[in-house]
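Subject: Predicted fold for Tryptophan synthase beta chain, 393 residues

User T.R. writes:
Posting the sequence so we have a shared reference for the thread.
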Amino acid sequence: MNYQVDTRGYYGDFGGAFIPEILYPNIEELKAKYLDIMQSPDFLAEFDSLLKDYVGRPTPLYFAKRMSEKYQTKVYLKREDLNHTGAHKINNTIGQILLAKRLGKQKIIAETGAGQHGVATATVCALMDIECIVYMGKIDMARQRPNVERMRLLGAKVVPATSGSQTLKDATNEAMRHWINHPTDTHYIIGSVVGPHPYPDMVARFQSVISEEMKAQLLEKTGSENPDYVIACVGGGSNAMGAFYHYLDRPEVRLIAVEAAGKGVDTGESAATTQLGKPGVLHGSKTILMQTSDGQVVEPYSISAGLDYPGIGPAHAHLFASGRAEFMSVTDRDAMEAGRLLCRTEGIIPAIESSHALAVFEQRKFAPDDVVVLNLSGRGDKDLQTYIDYEFE
Ligand SMILES: *Cc1c(COP(=O)(O)O)cnc(C)c1O
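User M.O. replies:
I've generated the structure tokens; pasting them so everyone works from the same file.
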């Protein structure tokens, strides 16, 4: 079984590039050039140096002693929460801005839901002195005021998407519309392993630094590059793909992807895509998505903005369909409890997205000798108000 993208841009039955005719030249240009650019020595030197000195990589692989005692297994946390801007998203935006420069693009557009990807994009545009426009649903702008202010402080223009439900999918539509109208001078930075080929592969490669570091760090700490399990939360799936990437072809390493069940898989307020979804086309690729019987995208729900997405990237759809990864889902309530537990056992306040992955330890038992690596995708500063307002039991 092959888990990498094939020459047609597919992962098994999923992937491809379902795009309007007018964007065909952009996607073709990306497809023709992305690998050569990403593998060129001058790109690699600049990427590595920025990851080290600007982002703060390598991020630690931390043996969580008290968590390990509590759950009677060996828990390691990959500390993506310690990256500049607070999550793994900057690995991808650094990579894409360097690529955009080499493609000769003068302008960057991005879409954002909660604002995390928008902030990571505005950050690298400031760093590279490139004009940045971020599309964001009008309702999301009101809900995520601090991130709107961060983006503006960083010099980005934040444009409200006022159509439809005024949330992420409408912001995506607006960004697409902009790209269609300015196809030659603009690069569109997509924030997860979603979108038309080659985006899912490109983003996966930028995020694969996570598992590349894990291999070396595990070898040093445990004597083996391989853990028994890797656990990560999945919105679109970029932090999970980064954490899985170098283990995809090592079946002895088991992969666990964690989706947001929201208020419960059967409540109508959920984002557990693999449990509720069916194959279809979303944001330019064939994947699994939540949809009505006549193919309308269903509005997802999760307490965590980063997991509140109606699909998953096509590579994850393939990992699910082939059984290579096990997909689990975690409710708002279980995630919030697991997040608070990490605060109190390890002194780390996790992003609520990452808390979903942490809740797996309550749902399933691991053996005392198992080495379990959990990708802690981000820190919880942005979620402070949600933790404060939440009514814990
Ligand atoms: C955006 C985000 C996610 C979800 O995105 P993926 O592409 O699935 O990784 C998860 N965790 C944090 C902290 C995020 O900011």
